[in-house]
């Protein structure tokens, strides 16, 4: 292998590093490394890198395609197989499965925790895990013990299973990921490791991740959480997503979780569960931005600036009579975000409200909802009852979730075509032979 390959690379530090082709065009980011354990405690051999490419697809890049590892960049060459990465028997994800393990120092038997793994290239060109950065257990009031880097031969315990593996160092490598990207990473973890990560996330972060998961995965994950914790996470989810999830867990389990939720959160979810899934009522959120005609443009802009508001919901403010909690007083109309930007901050919303956008009833079909959004170029639309009270809003992302086929989040990554990273270069070794 030619190029500027440095002698030793610590893999936790490599996570998130940008990957480029030889022309300098970005390919993706490093998310993990794949290794295989060997007999007689020999240093594991690195098979390749797991790289995240556009559309959140994680693919395998053989280590023989890596020509340069420098500060902040990885350069690869050859044909990049775009088939979604899946590990095989005997293979381990270094960051996903080896970090945070409790292992022993061979000489003393002392228990230590893995914080990082260092790989080096030997004379034959193979990359091996030769160093392990470990933390000793703290004593007394010390929260953390001393850290040191030891050789692979100086530790043991990687071959044994561990029931309660920590996740602190793994989560540190994933802390900057968006919820959808973290959901993709968790999809590739072993079920046991996926549960460990889920239990370590705070309620809000886990709620965001569950909203991005396939139905089967999130049902399985929710089943692994204790009742109180599961109820707290459901309370942090958007009510429509929580309702969708509870429809999937079975009536008895759903009722038990609703009883554990905060009454206000449970009320919104119960209301949504009364509607059919593929209707406006079943898809809507009960928490759009609602204001009165007497609110000002400045107040409306302050509301849409809130970071927890999704872009689709932030695109418009729904003007209603009091009360402003759904179901509201009579729905009046919509104040569009672009119009807000053009008006004086002190202007009242009632003087600029769009009354032409009529609400749909909660029984409106998926086809009616999608046609309405497309016809009027809206990102969200109001759902109203027979008395013209605002019940909620359906956003375009909710509609897409229902229009796309099941498991679309991962199906679109299964495309097995290959992309030529370096044109006119022949593919000498296939992925199969290199693994």
UniProtKB/TrEMBL annotation:
<dbReference type="InterPro" id="IPR006669">
    <property type="entry name" value="MgtE_transporter"/>
</dbReference>
<dbReference type="GO" id="GO:0015095">
    <property type="term" value="F:magnesium ion transmembrane transporter activity"/>
</dbReference>
<dbReference type="InterPro" id="IPR046342">
    <property type="entry name" value="CBS_dom_sf"/>
</dbReference>
<dbReference type="InterPro" id="IPR006668">
    <property type="entry name" value="Mg_transptr_MgtE_intracell_dom"/>
</dbReference>
<dbReference type="InterPro" id="IPR011033">
    <property type="entry name" value="PRC_barrel-like_sf"/>
</dbReference>
<protein>
    <submittedName>
        <fullName>Mg/Co/Ni transporter MgtE</fullName>
    </submittedName>
</protein>
<feature type="domain" description="CBS">
    <location>
        <begin position="352"/>
        <end position="412"/>
    </location>
</feature>
<dbReference type="Pfam" id="PF00571">
    <property type="entry name" value="CBS"/>
</dbReference>
<dbReference type="Pfam" id="PF03448">
    <property type="entry name" value="MgtE_N"/>
</dbReference>
<dbReference type="InterPro" id="IPR058838">
    <property type="entry name" value="SH3_actinomycetes"/>
</dbReference>
<dbReference type="GO" id="GO:0016020">
    <property type="term" value="C:membrane"/>
</dbReference>
<dbReference type="InterPro" id="IPR000644">
    <property type="entry name" value="CBS_dom"/>
</dbReference>
<dbReference type="Pfam" id="PF26205">
    <property type="entry name" value="SH3_actinomycetes"/>
</dbReference>
<dbReference type="InterPro" id="IPR038076">
    <property type="entry name" value="MgtE_N_sf"/>
</dbReference>
<keyword id="KW-0129">CBS domain</keyword>
């Amino acid at each position: 292998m030619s190029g500027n390959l440095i002698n030793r690379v610590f893999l936790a530090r490599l996570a998130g590093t940008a990957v480029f082709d030889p022309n300098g065009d970005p390919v993706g980011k490093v998310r993990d490394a794949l290794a295989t354990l060997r007999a007689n405690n020999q240093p594991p051999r690195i098979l390749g890198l797991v790289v995240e490419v556009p559309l959140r697809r994680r693919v395998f890049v053989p280590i023989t395609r890596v020509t340069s590892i420098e500060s902040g960049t990885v350069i690869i060459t050859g044909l990049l197989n775009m088939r979604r990465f899946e590990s095989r028997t005997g293979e381990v994800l270094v960051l996903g499965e080896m970090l945070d393990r409790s292992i022993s120092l061979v000489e003393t038997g002392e228990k230590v925790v893995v914080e990082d793994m260092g790989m080096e290239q030997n004379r034959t060109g193979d990359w091996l895990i030769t160093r392990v950065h470990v933390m000793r257990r703290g004593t007394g009031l010390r929260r953390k013990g001393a850290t040191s880097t030891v050789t692979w031969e100086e530790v043991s315990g990687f071959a044994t299973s561990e029931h309660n593996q920590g996740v602190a160092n793994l989560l540190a490598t994933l802390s900057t990921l968006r919820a959808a990207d973290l959901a993709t990473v968790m999809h590739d973890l072993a079920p046991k490791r996926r549960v460990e990560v889920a239990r370590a996330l705070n309620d809000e972060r886990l709620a965001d991740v569950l909203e991005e998961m396939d139905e089967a995965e999130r049902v399985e994950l929710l089943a692994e959480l204790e009742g109180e914790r599961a109820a707290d996470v459901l309370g942090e989810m958007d009510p429509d997503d929580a309702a969708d999830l509870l429809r999937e867990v079975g009536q008895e389990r759903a009722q038990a979780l609703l009883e554990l939720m905060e009454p206000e959160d449970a009320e919104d979810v119960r209301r949504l569960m009364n509607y059919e899934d593929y209707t406006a009522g079943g898809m809507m959120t009960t928490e759009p931005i609602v204001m009165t005609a007497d609110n000002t443009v400045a107040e409306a802009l302050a509301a849409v600036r809130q970071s927890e508001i999704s872009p689709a919901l932030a695109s418009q403010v729904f003007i209603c009579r009091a009360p402003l909690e759904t179901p509201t007083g009579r729905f009046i109309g919509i104040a569009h975000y672009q119009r807000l930007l053009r008006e004086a901050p002190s202007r009242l919303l009632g003087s600029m409200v769009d009354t032409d956008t009529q609400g749909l009833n909660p029984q409106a079909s998926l086809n009616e909802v999608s046609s309405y959004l497309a016809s009027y170029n809206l990102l969200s639309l109001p759902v109203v009852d027979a008395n013209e009270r605002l019940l909620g809003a359906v956003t375009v992302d909710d509609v897409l979730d229902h229009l796309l086929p099941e498991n679309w989040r991962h199906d679109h990554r299964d495309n097995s075509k290959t992309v030529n990273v370096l044109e006119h270069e022949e593919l000498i070794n296939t992925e199969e032979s290199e693994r």
